[in-house]
Task: structure prediction
Amino acid sequence: MEHKPSSLPRSRRKRRGILLAAAGAGVAALLIWFDGIFTAAAEFIGVISLFVLAGIIYLFDFLVFKSATPRDENKDQRFRSSK
Result:
């Protein structure tokens, strides 16, 4: 078995390896940076959704139980009948 010599000289292979390592490190740094941004956005969306759900529950409570509150006419009638 013969060993096939590389088509590039050793200095160019070394330079190419350094460039590839730098590019890989840069891509890894970008991925970690975007991961942090996505994590912060997910937490922010969770907090905002809590406020939205609380507002929906408050509106539901207001609309459903508004009919159960006594009106002014009913309050006057109750006080007159108890005297």
